[in-house]
Amino acid sequence: MKKYTYNLFPLVLILIGFLLICLSVYSAIFAIDYSELEESAGQIVGAIGFLAIGLFLITFRSRISVDEKKLLIVKEYRVFGGKLSQEIIRIPEKAYEIIIVPKKKRARGYVNAVVPFGYNLNSHDVYFALANSRVPIIKTDRKRAIKIVEFIKSSIQSDS
Fold this sequence. Notes:
The chain is of the alpha+beta class. It folds into two domains: 1-90, no CATH class; 92-160, no CATH class. It contains three helices and seven strands, in the order βααββββββα. The chain has a four-stranded antiparallel β-sheet. Strands 5-6-7 form a three-stranded antiparallel β-sheet, covered by helices on one side. A hairpin with a 2-residue loop joins β3 and β4 (82-90). The longest helix has 21 residues, at 11-31. It is elongated and about 70 Å long. The two termini are 14 Å apart.
C-alpha cells in the first residue's frame, strides 16, 4: 500500500503554528509567575491555548493510501497523530482515466450572520471517468490535484 501525505494548511499557517508554539514556550518559561499561580491562571490557560492551536496547525494532515491489490483508495484526515476521519473509495475496474475538473465556487465566511461577505474559490475536483458517469475522489487546489492524480496513476500502474 503506497501512501501520500500532505499538510492541509498552507505554509504560512504552519509557520504561524510554529510561532504560536514558540510564544507559548516563552510565556511558560519567562512570563508566568509560578510563585502566585492563582493570579497567573489566565496566563497559564493562554499559554496552553497557544500551544494547542499551534500544534493543531502543524499536525493537521491528510493521507491518501492506494491499495493496488484490493483496488481501494483510503483518504484519512489526521490531527495530533490520531485519525480524525477516514473515507474508502473503491477504484472502478472500468475506469478509463482520472480527470481533473476545475470549478469556480462561491463560499461564505463563518461570520456571515454578523458581516455578510463571500469569496470565490477555485476548486479542482478529481474523478475516475467511466463510460457514463464519474466517481469522485477528492476536491482540492490545482497543484495538489495534479500531485494526487500522478500518485494514484503511478500506484495503480506499478502493480499492473
